[in-house]
């Protein structure tokens, strides 16, 4: 399997008045293409900070990030954000005065990736795949349920034709049944469409459905299963 995203020696701290608080501490990790990852961690452990860096919305104080073995330097950051990664947020972050269809079209206009010409038709089809039928696709997004809005947000992220989807607590506002629906979509994207999905979550149920569970702790990422094995080994 090939590596899609590499984090190498990433450090990040916030300055709080006089003191410096290190959130990410020489963190390294390689994400393989086509897998569904979940990142777990206590509240305040730095998950959102890490995801902002991984999506190119923020830059680390030091360290390197690579997309498919190419370093994402300052010059490449814009291209990475526009053309390589789609982001899904807990609060959906849709444009509320637009319809689902318009939200997806805005996203399509924001990439340089090659997209089909009949964008309206493609956007409509994409939304339909996620259960947003045309009557719903043409209402204001605020008239949809939370689960529906999150499905629009996933369609919006995918509409740019990217291979990497990052999501920050995407089911944090949803009930258990709707959470399952959303996670099924993520699973399907990795299994049947070769996408790489990295989801930050509090939910153990969500993490159990992923291919690989990672724990963010003390500023570093740890493979949960390896960490568990080590713990077991140390007790026998
Ligand atoms: N802009 C900021 N300035 C100072 N401290 C921040 C800022 N953003 C987040 N923090 C702090 O950094 C830590 C990690 O935050 P965050 O990445 O949001 O954690 P998580 O998403 O895991 O809950 C928290 O203690 C938070 O208070
Ligand atoms: Mg957070």
Explain this structure to me?
The chain has 236 residues and is α/β, with parallel strands linked by helices. It has a domain at 1-82 and 200-236: P-loop containing nucleotide triphosphate hydrolases (Rossmann fold). The protein is 39% helix and 28% strand. The protein has 9 helices and 10 strands. It has helices at residues 47-54, 74-83, 100-109, 119-129, 134-137, 146-158, 176-193, 204-208, 224-235; strands at residues 3-16, 19-32, 36-40, 62-67, 70-71, 85-88, 164-168, 196-200, 212-217, 220-223. It has a 6-stranded mixed sheet with strand order 6-7-8-3-9-10, sandwiched between helices. Strands 2-1-4-5 form a 4-stranded antiparallel sheet, covered by helices on one side. A hairpin with a 2-residue loop joins strand 1 (3-16) and strand 2. Helix 3 crosses helix 4 (119-129) and helix 3 packs parallel to helix 6 (146-158). The chain is globular. The model has no long low-confidence stretch (mean pLDDT 93).
Task: Give the topology.
Elements (H helix, E strand, L loop, with lengths): L2 E14 L2 E14 L3 E5 L6 H8 L7 E6 L2 E2 L2 H10 L1 E4 L11 H10 L9 H11 L4 H4 L8 H13 L5 E5 L7 H18 L2 E5 L3 H5 L3 E6 L2 E4 H12 L1
Parallel strand pairs: 3-8, 3-9, 6-7, 7-8
Antiparallel strand pairs: 1-2, 1-4, 4-5, 9-10
The site of adenosine-5'-diphosphate (ADP) has 11 residues, from strand 1 and helix 1.
């Amino acid at each position: 399997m090939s590596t899609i995203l590499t984090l190498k020696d990433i450090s990040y701290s916030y300055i709080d008045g006089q003191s410096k608080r290190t959130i990410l501490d020489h963190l390294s990790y390689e994400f393989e293409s086509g897998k569904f990852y979940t990142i777990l961690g206590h509240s305040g452990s730095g998950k959102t900070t890490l995801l902002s860096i991984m999506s190119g919305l923020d830059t680390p104080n030091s360290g390197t990030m690579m997309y498919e073995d190419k370093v994402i330097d300052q010059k490449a950051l814009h291209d990475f954000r526009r053309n390589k990664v789609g982001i899904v947020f807990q609060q959906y972050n849709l444009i509320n005065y637009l319809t689902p269809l318009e939200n997806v079209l805005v996203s399509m206009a924001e990439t340089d990736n090659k997209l089909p010409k009949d964008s309206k038709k493609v956007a409509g089809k994409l939304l339909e795949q996620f259960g947003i039928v045309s009557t719903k696709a043409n209402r204001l997004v605020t008239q949809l349920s939370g689960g529906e809005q999150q499905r629009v947000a996933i369609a919006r992220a995918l509409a740019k034709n990217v291979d990497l989807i990052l999501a920050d607590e995407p089911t944090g506002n949803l009930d258990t049944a709707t959470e399952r629906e959303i996670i099924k979509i993520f699973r399907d994207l990795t299994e049947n469409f070769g996408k790489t999905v990295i989801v930050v979550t509090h939910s153990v149920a969500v993490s159990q459905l992923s291919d690989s569970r990672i724990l963010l702790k003390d500023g570093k990422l740890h493979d949960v299963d390896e960490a568990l094995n080590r713990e077991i080994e140390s007790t026998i």
